[in-house]
Amino acid sequence: KAGVTQTPRYLIKTRGQQVTLSCSPISGHRSVSWYQQTPGQGLQFLFEYFSETQRNKGNFPGRFSGRQFSNSRSEMNVSTLELGDSALYLCASSSQGVGQETQYFGPGTRLLVL
Amino acid sequence: GENVEQHPSTLSVQEGDSAVIKCTYSDSASNYFPWYKQELGKGPQLIIDIRSNVGEKKDQRIAVTLNKTAKHFSLHITETQPEDSAVYFCAAGDNYGQNFVFGPGTRLSVLP
After folding, report:
1. pLDDT of chain A along its 114 residues, tens only?
2. Measured between CB atoms, does B40 come within 8 Å of chain A?
């Protein structure tokens, strides 16, 4: 089985722009979760989508949003980028969801905001 | 919400020795405790997990123990090898993914 894939792998944006990141889960997995990883804050949960519905949400501002398509692929959008949004954004997929089944992480998208 | 502390932040051991990483959590509702290994340039990989109805779980050289009363859980790696060198994260949450929080990580170096 192919693993979780994320595109693009690297991205450079400027403050005020918006960005969309994509995640393709393992075939058959219905849950996709997104995480932000920074040296200062560590790994932080953004949100989880299951069967096209947001099921859980972390403590991030409304500039961070996501969606999931009928084929379980998910996108994450960050609007009005700030310097502090520079981070590695990871997605993870599982068959049943966070806390219920093993999550498999993708390699991440490294976002740099200038 | 949940708060997870992890110690030590860095750990160096000689090849063949054991390594122990400890985590404490604050929310008594948490009942799922996974451990992840993250190598450079890769996403985290689940290495072992434990649920609150179990006190200990073992998988070859890796074991996790859980003390729900004291709200702490530990990762034990025996017979360490250089390929065990990585950053290890603990996490805590419930079965529904609520309040899923990671610890700050431990950088483990296994010296040959």
Report:
1. 679 999 999 999 999 999 999 999 999 999 999 999 999 889 999 999 999 999 888 889 999 999 999 999 999 999 999 999 999 999 999 988 777 778 899 999 999 999
2. no
Angle at A31 between CA A26 and CA A81, to 5 degrees: 95
Residue A50's closest CA among A70, A76, A35? A70
Q: How many residues does chain A have?
A: 114
The Cα–Cα gap between A73 and A68 comes to: 6
CA distance A71 to A68: 8
- Contact indicator for A8, A15 with CB cutoff of 8 Å: no
Tell whether A61 lies on the interface with B, counting CB pairs under 8 A. no
Nearest to A55 among B94, B97, B105 (CB): B97
DSSP A83: G
